């Protein structure tokens, strides 16, 4: 009987029932938000599956697998956490009666951390894949679809391992105001500080890696697209993938940086937790799961063709859309490609024949022959 009066650890900071009524955490808002996110991710998964079935490019199929893993993770995150939040707002269940041993609260806390870190880590993995594909194209052949699947699985294992740390004593998961969700405990306790910093720094480091590698990839892609041999290179799909990846990175940064910085700043300063800002930045973060699928839905070549039908999307290179950029990048590209060919000559058994095989066919300039 004495043990029943002991407050479980997950309820030691915030004990239900709550009397707070935050508009941002209302039942209507949560239901609409979750429904919109689930339907968007499901539609994106269907489009991705159809595109993957018809694609013949290895680099594009690898990117689509990464993107499919990201969309699937977002879908499952909204399904798991959204169902708990909406159920609470509809039934107003008492957490202490439903979960006296904190198992359910720990599960939701783990889900929040796992599905929070996965998109950031997957974004970094996609940035690495595009960096290798654009800057080291001859090494891209080793990135098979099987290896991509293993990479996605490794990301899931990494995020899952971090989410399990509170269960082994590093940090805690606590019920959060207004009582509809559980998350890592943001306090000045040493273990809570450590886990809070791990969560924040892993997320921020993933965003930093994405930003760095994507920047290098964009610069390299511009040099290749606008170089002397650009008209013989088919780069429209590379540009499409980079545009999608840049938008995914920008959305993740806008949605997650406020929450990650807020957690790190709060635990390091030892200041009292401001629940209003925690709920606000949490909504920003969960918005990432709703916006991610629309990046692929809206920014595909099929959609861009309809938005800009006057552009000649059938040409072999994106440089045909921006011919004025060719001259300004020609010298840089010639030097870069020349160095690459020189290095390959030392590897190829017969460099003269290899160069002849690599020489692309001439492309007819339709603008010059038009009447």
From TrEMBL:
It is found in: Cell membrane. GO terms for biological process: adenylate cyclase-activating G protein-coupled receptor signaling pathway; inflammatory response; positive regulation of blood pressure; positive regulation of cytosolic calcium ion concentration; positive regulation of vasoconstriction. InterPro entries: GPCR_Rhodpsn, GPCR_Rhodpsn_7TM, Prostanoid_rcpt, Thbox_rcpt. GO terms for cellular component: plasma membrane. SUPFAM superfamilies: Family A G protein-coupled receptor-like. The chain crosses the membrane at residues 27-49, 61-87, 107-128, 148-173, 193-222, 243-268, 280-299. Residues 40-296 form the G-protein coupled receptors family 1 profile domain. It is a multi-pass membrane protein. Gene3D superfamilies: Rhodopsin 7-helix transmembrane proteins. Keywords: Cell membrane, Disulfide bond, G-protein coupled receptor, Glycoprotein, Membrane, Phosphoprotein, Receptor, Transducer, Transmembrane, Transmembrane helix. PROSITE patterns: G_PROTEIN_RECEP_F1_1, G_PROTEIN_RECEP_F1_2. One of its GO terms (molecular function) is thromboxane A2 receptor activity. The keyword Magnesium does not apply. This is Thromboxane A2 receptor. It comes from Danio rerio (Zebrafish). The lineage of its organism: Eukaryota, Metazoa, Chordata, Craniata, Vertebrata.
